Amino acid sequence: MTSTGFDYRAGVLHAEEVPLPTIASAVGTPTYVYCANTIRHRFHQLDQAFHGVPHHIHFAVKANSNLSILSLLRSLGAGVDIVSGGELYRALAAGFHGRDVVFSGVGKTVHEIAQALNAGVQLINIESEAELVTVNAVAERLGVIAPIAIRVNPEVTVDTPHAYIKTGEKGQKFGIPRDDVSRLVACLPDLPNVQLRGLGMHLGSQIGNADPLRDALPRLLSALEQARAAGQPIAFLDVGGGLSVPYEAHETEADIDDYARIVRAAALDTGLTLLLEPGRFLVAEAGVLLTEVLYRKHAAGKDFVVTDAGMNDLIRPALYQAYHAIDPVVITDGAVVADIVGPICESGDFFAKDRAVPDVQAGALLAVRTAGAYGFSMASNYNSRARPAEVLVDGEQFAVVGVRESQEDLVRLERAPLHWRTA
Predict the structure, then answer these.
(1) What is the extent of the structural domain holding 80?
(2) Known catalytic residue: 35?
(3) What's the predicted TM-score (pTM) here?
(4) Binding residues for pyridoxal 5'-phosphate
(5) Active-site choice (1, 345, 416, 423)
(6) Which of 232, 312, 332, 346 has the most CB atoms in a 10 Å sphere around its CB?
(7) Is residue 151 part of a domain?
(8) pLDDT of 343-364, one tens digit each?
(9) pLDDT tens digit sequence for 69-90
(10) Same structural domain for residues 261 and 344?
């Protein structure tokens, strides 16, 4: 297994060259810690797999939208895949240009579509006929031609760890059913302010083998043939993301070579520029959630390890029943079977259930692994808790890239006294 950047040295867990206790002492806990070199390695690994094929990697911003992470990926040559106007704002703030942006999502507002067109995005992914009509109307009002792609739902069976991360099966809200693509293409001559520039798909997340891709690609290529036969100037073939990363010890990394072998062949046959949209693959293993043990508790025959991080900081275990490895920052003798829980007033506030863990005591530090994707980006202020800090490590140096919220931040946008208005 490839190193994630987090390794023990003399019994102490380090992020690259920096001991995690040093970060905890300087910044406090809970804190997300990211390794820059792991992100670089993952990007280059994927980029090299498609050497010789015209391609562009668009990072899925929803996985981790921190400006410094985005800037790092921009410096490597990445573009971005966004799903909201807010993510577009972040991308532009991180130095990306409109031409670096693919805009996905089933519910784009008129304001977001205008924002995207004014920024000159590379593609707007169309996910319904109604959206197609709306994009044309907004583009007409702005006096521009909207570059669009049709997101095809190939309707293939996808084996993922949780139903919520499947997006390419029949009955999902995402994309255009493959049998409806030709009908949308037939509408295009009546919509003069859109131009079809690409076709794409996204099967879901945590796809562990290439079998769904083998099933889906012919369906995407069939839709491409229909669009080309209708005279559409297709330039891009977008195969989405979804490459899996291991969360548990028995899981293996995505087989990039097998994935690339299948996709390369299809892309070369079409002669189009290939678009890839990885998110989790680039950043998940590059991050941990650093948390301190507050208390040990024994109740009703169970042991509990209570931490200062909660489900508001990392909701994946509660939302997806996701497994995250949890390691002591300083190696500790002994073990105990315990629930690792947070301070939130919810029974769903846990990171592990009945887990064999080191016999850590109050004051010890724990690292919740594989937390660089869908960790901070899904964090909330539930229970009026401030969101954690974020730190980026690069070799021997580290920097705070996300300041811990204060309690004043919790009410900063609220108003008292009220300024009443009348109808």
Answers:
(1) 36-282
(2) no
(3) 0.93
(4) 242, 277-280, 374
(5) 345
(6) 312
(7) yes
(8) 999 999 999 999 999 999 999 9
(9) 999 999 999 999 999 999 999 9
(10) no
